[in-house]
Amino acid sequence: MRDRYDPDLEAWCVQAGATNWHAYSHLYPLSGKALPGGSCYSVGLGGHITGGGYGLLSRQSGLTVDYLYAVEVAVVNADRTVDLVVATRDDPDPDRRDLWWAHTGGGGGNFGVVTRFWFRDLPAPPERVLITARAWKWPDFTKESFTRLLNAYGEYFADHQDPATPAGRLFTLLTLNHRANGEIGLIAQVDADSDAEDDPGVAAMRAFLKKVDGDRVPDSHPMWSSAAEHAAIPGAYKPRLMPWLTATQALNSSGENRCGKYKSAYLRKPFTKRQITAMWDYLGNTHFENYDNKEAVIQIDSYGSAVNDPPHDTASPQRDSILKMQYQVYWQRPSDDDAGDEAKHLAWIRETYRATFAATGGVPVIGENTDGCYVNYPDTDLSDADWNTSDQSWHKLYYKDAYTRLQRVKARWDPLNIFQHAQSIRPPADI
Ligand SMILES: Cc1cc2nc3c(=O)[nH]c(=O)nc-3n(C[C@H](O)[C@H](O)[C@H](O)COP(=O)(O)OP(=O)(O)OC[C@H]3O[C@@H](n4cnc5c(N)ncnc54)[C@H](O)[C@@H]3O)c2cc1C
């Protein structure tokens, strides 16, 4: 990839074949700026940005697409000729402006092939961050202490949503692994200038840990095994100060390639009692007790703060959630021709998700407590009446009311519907 500052567009240009890691390792040294994107090094910007990518800096700085100024897209015309179109946020042409907008959360593989992104006013990452990584042993939990942990976690983020405060910038990942893993993990990061007791970042981390890791939950210990797709950092039981880039690198797990299935949910409020019971049950306590996969996890990310105050109109409409849930399961296939235990892993993730959102048709509907799903964890079960028994379609769950405008963009820029997949934006006549 060639990152460079483009004086004509007054923006940093990043090529679409780059990965998250390129963005951190190349763009940051060159510009002193960072995309507030995901921590997994291998995630490609082509899909990540177009779906509205987020990461550990997002409570501080918002979504990656909040800084997207322009896209260059190869589009296919009605006569099958191809044009390379540059579309900007303030484009005088409303169709091109719409094409830019559709790439701020509309998802990849819908309108054409993005070849370049330009970002304007990117934030500088914190120079130093405080990282904590802890784990609790599953056998130490009772349903009551598990409930207290989830209640405390949800309440903390309901109460801390101001990005002007360290507590509002603190980003965390709670990894509720299946019991087979042996542990539940927690990673937390906040910006801090020093590790002095009176540093505001240190104080925020201390208050957070007191809330979720106090004497109402089992004793925690250093995290020795990886937490979902994040590497273990056993040396950070006690909060450790490190340069931001070092922390980003430390969290970046580089496990083997494997198969996986994801599901997601935006939460506007702390967990309901019913949701907590379902998670307890399906993590191996009363259901799937003999399931032996260490890599089956409900990961709960902190969310909101700067994400909930977007500077522009984007196609990422979930802007008042406090938590974002990622259901993940990974497995190895014995060979390309042999799916192995795939059915067993799919059964775990499907049934666990359905049980968590049983009150709303098996999915986190746009409603009082939940706000749909993240298009970057695409889930074809949302289109399946066996798994989504709510009255909300897959496109409502991903895009809310933005879908109609996305369809208009589709009709204008991909009139032959060349770019399509199981959940691609449908041309208007095709709804
Ligand atoms: C291990 C792991 C960790 C993750 N962590 C995070 C995270 O922390 N935060 C987060 O927000 N997301 C995260 N994600 C989700 C990630 O953002 C999406 O999977 C994203 O779509 C990946 O983009 P890709 O280009 O690598 O994938 P691909 O599978 O190659 O592409 C995804 C979609 O985008 C389309 N696409 C790809 N490139 C282009 C292009 N140049 N032009 C047009 N369409 C294109 C493809 O056709 C496809 O429809 C994670 C995913 C994984 C597997």
Automatic annotation (TrEMBL):
<comment type="similarity">
    <text>Belongs to the oxygen-dependent FAD-linked oxidoreductase family.</text>
</comment>
<dbReference type="Pfam" id="PF08031">
    <property type="entry name" value="BBE"/>
</dbReference>
<protein>
    <submittedName>
        <fullName>BBE domain-containing protein</fullName>
    </submittedName>
</protein>
<dbReference type="InterPro" id="IPR016169">
    <property type="entry name" value="FAD-bd_PCMH_sub2"/>
</dbReference>
<dbReference type="InterPro" id="IPR036318">
    <property type="entry name" value="FAD-bd_PCMH-like_sf"/>
</dbReference>
<dbReference type="InterPro" id="IPR016166">
    <property type="entry name" value="FAD-bd_PCMH"/>
</dbReference>
<keyword id="KW-0560">Oxidoreductase</keyword>
<feature type="domain" description="FAD-binding PCMH-type">
    <location>
        <begin position="1"/>
        <end position="124"/>
    </location>
</feature>
<keyword id="KW-0274">FAD</keyword>
<dbReference type="InterPro" id="IPR012951">
    <property type="entry name" value="BBE"/>
</dbReference>
<keyword id="KW-0285">Flavoprotein</keyword>
<dbReference type="InterPro" id="IPR050416">
    <property type="entry name" value="FAD-linked_Oxidoreductase"/>
</dbReference>
